[in-house]
Request: fold
Amino acid sequence: MTLPFRERLERISDALLGCPIVQPASVAQLAQWVDAELGPGALSEDTIPYGGRRRRLQPLSPILHVVSGNTPHAAVQSLVRGLVTGAAVQWIKVPQAVRLAELENFVTALPECMRPALAQELPAAWLERAAAVAVFGADETIREFARRIQPWQRFLPHGNKVSFGWIRGRYDEELLAALTRDVVAFDQLGCLSPQFYLVSGDARNFARDLAAIFSREEPDWPPLRLTTQEAARLREFRDMHQLRAACRDGTAVWGSAEGLAWTVIFDPRPEFAWTPLLRTVVVKAETEGVLERLRRIAPFLSTIAVHPYTEEGLTLAVRLGAQRVCRAGAMQNPDWLWHHDGWPSLGAFLRYVDVEN
Amino acid sequence: MHDENLEEKVLRFITAPADGAGFESLAFEIHGFQRCHNLVYARYCEQLGIGSSLESWKQIPALPQQAFKRQRILAFPEIDIRFEFRTSGTTGEGYGRHLLPSLALYRHSVLAGWRYFGLPEKGIRLLMQAPEYAPYSSLARMGAILTGNHAEAFLVDARGGIERDRLAKVAAETQRPVMLFGTALAFVNLLEQSSAMPLPAGSLLMETGGFKGSNRVIDKTELYERLANHFQVRVEDIWNEYGMTELTSQFYSRGTGGPHFGPPWLRFLVIDPETNRPAPAGQSGVLRIIDLANLWSVLGIQTQDLAVAQPDGGFLLLGRDPAALPRGCSRAVDELLRTVRA
Reply:
């Protein structure tokens, strides 16, 4: 049974109150989202006028969400999109290795008739019967599902992405503290996490100042829980940059004195090296060489946080290929109107029916 | 000119190590020498804020193994470079280079280490190319040292093919025990390309090097069982050599699940990567190696392998686990650039 539109929004809004990993939303805000993307009355009325004809928006159902272990917020967002559109049935394939407690709590907070089914092992019937399949994860996972998807199924792949911060002017401690929040959220493993900062002006000094704020804020962060392998790669990354710095190629390294809580690297080269993430930030000077490399990966660019938040900066970020441009500190908190990976967030789960005059 | 006096000291220690007594003082001497003559190492220590006065060999700073891919790691003048060993370069990051002014330390370390573990010096057959076909391979050079560079010992031809007929002949006609030494990949190829090849009683196998350059990985227990059946030897008669291009000395283990041990001039530490200090007993960490025979490069090397120290003085090698690397929907820019280029 699908609840009426208004009642659905009330239940979703209530459940979001207990879900700290995504933005809360009142009923009015959820309705505003629907109105903004689909037009007033689009989901609450049978048909609505549309360019001299009428159209009806039918929710795709069932929806299968395949979610990744490190980004529980993406799982909640995807589920909420399906709930708002009114999908009667939703299924979520959750990871086997990691428990997504926040997602489970959100599901529990929903009325029973709105709850999706969760499974660690993907039942074959789910993939065979789903009208829409949204997959989050590494490109290998996306490819595997793309291979198995049927021509009539709507496929929404959310693969690997690159996000970063672009500092184009004066900054202060408040701004730097906002940047650390972007890095610490989800231990920097999300597709909206900044992998690096591009700095016009004195990038080395920026890196030093950012490191000072990391050092100041570190005691307030939740501890970084690393496997031995992850810690080994972090240590190796730090050591190799210490070696570069020792060989005087212009590299500079700052890091937590004890342990591996955070690392900031100033890398003067235009090339991008592999980074282990997990609160490891690389700072690069804005040079033509760096920009040229970023243009080449434009299809993979997700969020660019721009500072200062001026029209000029926003335009440059969009031209570079950003899918989303935001303020520093807001990288991990897209609001509900966000077009995830450039698609209509609600429209992707809807079937548009045209009724001509 | 390089420091022949110190080289002599190391050679004496290797050939008559007296169970390791004097290891620490010689390690300090080499460390001091390398701080003076190895510019990269000296600057690295300085960068880390480590003084030249140390209280224990365990405090000797180790260069990351990857440094051999980025820099020339030399404790002697470049003009004296006579030999060059290269890593396989299979990780796509280029190859590492171990540069040497002479092979004296390498030769003595290989032979003395082999003898230290009581390994047979006769009947050695090598599933590897001769140095003339693989001039940058430290393993080929090791094989040449162990066999006196006899052409008949090498069973891989110039094009990299295993000479199965010659090996079969050795197996069929030799009455005395054989020591067959090769990479895990070469052994797997042999398993797949030939029928059972019983070796004379008392024969041994020495496997090394993993599966570099190949997508194939076989569990060690399974590999050893298949090798034991194929060659009619006991699993405990299959040894593993753990070495690397960047080192001059080697660790050895026997059978499956057994720890690796080194000769007295080769020690290790298992380092907790979070603290960068020795890991508590029984805890896994990164393997750090102190090799006194690495006089001409750097004696301390931080490997990329994980290990667990054992109460008996050895270590259990855990290797690397790419599956355990951070995963998420974030993707490294350099990876994407490679994808776009491809």
